[in-house]
Amino acid sequence: MNFEFTDEQKLFAESVRRFAQQHLEEGALKRAHDPRFPFDVAKLMSQQGLMGITIAEADGGQGGSLMDAVIAIEQIAAVCPRSSDVVQFGSFGPIRTFSEYGTPAQKERWLPDLLGGKAVMSLGMTEPDAGSAATDLRTTAKPDGSHYILNGTKVFSTFSPDAAIFLIYVRFGPGVGGIGSVIVERDTPGFQIGPPSSFMSGEEWCELHFDNCRIPAENVLLGPGGFKKQMSGFNVERIGNTARALAFGRYAFERAREHVATREQFGRPLCEFQGLQWKFAEMAIKLESAQLLLYRAAVNADRGFPSAYETAVAKAACNTVGFEVAHESVQAMGATGYSRESLVEYCMRRCRGWMIAGGSVEILKNRIAEHIFDRRFDQRPRHAAAAE
Ligand SMILES: Cc1cc2nc3c(=O)[nH]c(=O)nc-3n(C[C@H](O)[C@H](O)[C@H](O)COP(=O)(O)OP(=O)(O)OC[C@H]3O[C@@H](n4cnc5c(N)ncnc54)[C@H](O)[C@@H]3O)c2cc1C
User: Fold this and answer.
1) 61: Cβ below 6 Å to ligand 1?
2) pLDDT in tens, 347-375
3) CA 300 → CA 52, 296, 297, 303, 304, distances in Å?
4) Is this structure's pTM higher than 0.70?
5) Cys-Cys link to 364, which of 38, 125, 172, 312 (CB 3.0-4.6 A)?
6) pLDDT tens per residue across span 208-217
7) Which atom in ligand 1 lies closest to the alpha carbon of residue 124?
């Protein structure tokens, strides 16, 4: 076992950090407070080979590992937290499921723009009555000759105000076995995108309505029985949320560390007060231990897909630690940390969201408990579970 990066990983990390310092440091604050997808950053990253890190070279990606993509998130977020969302989009998000399971024709049609930073894809899984219980989704896809007709509503989809393409989880039939997914283009008749609403983080999302929306059968990504594959792909997305939460916690920690090392009160630097020293020691212990769980899940990924258990442990740890550290960093910086000019409060707000998004901390703990006891714990009332 070796806790050091390889020489290749060190070189990659250094080159990504240099790129970020040259191109992304300036404007980091403005980007954080802009709810729109930063297409300028996506284009720059595409030229730099930072889009599609986890996607096969044959599909126009970089053919790298999940760990390479985690390193990229860490290095970008250390300079411009918001820009790491582009790495998430290009290497971890629905694009990863799409590139794994898409047909050659689908990939040829959509991947060049997605990897070129010209278009963004949004994931529509959650519905008004299907949040944590994702398999309760009701959006239907009914066959109609060479087409499918979609009906239903999706909520909370990240990047939905800007997305050109949507990966939508749908129900082809009853039960978990009836779930699959389709690709819907923004301007498809019968697909209405509501006005943007804001999360606490400032990110925006729109309600997505499908009202007899007709899509060609070629747009089916995964047919009935595709749910398991969708969740394997979703574990990659979770690792991206895990990596960003930890990286945002670390960003806040660094700003707070610099602040208490120089800011003086009562005639001495704040870091000379033991109450603050212990806060920082505790934050370092949390960050270092969560980091190992993240790296374990990424390094052990099988053909780029991490195990559900290792992902759950890493995400629950990093989401919680990222938020706690960012929260303590705000405190250690006083009003400066609480101000919108510091980016530390921004990191705290973003980290709070990842405790809910993409498998809440509670749902991940349910998954971990199933691993511990080596049995499934059905969350539904007994009569409902029996009826499935
Ligand atoms: C920042 C952000 C980005 C998001 N992006 C997307 C996106 O791109 N696409 C998309 O489809 N969705 C997205 N979502 C939605 C997200 O997937 C859901 O919010 C999540 O699945 C939880 O569903 P819910 O909000 O309906 O909460 P609910 O499911 O109603 O849960 C409410 C609370 O109860 C807890 N809870 C529920 N069931 C259990 C249980 N069995 N045991 C213990 N506790 C339980 C939950 O953990 C939570 O704390 C995003 C959400 C956020 C916050």
Assistant:
1) no
2) 999 999 999 999 999 999 999 999 999 99
3) 20, 6, 5, 9, 9
4) yes
5) 312
6) 999 999 999 9
7) 11
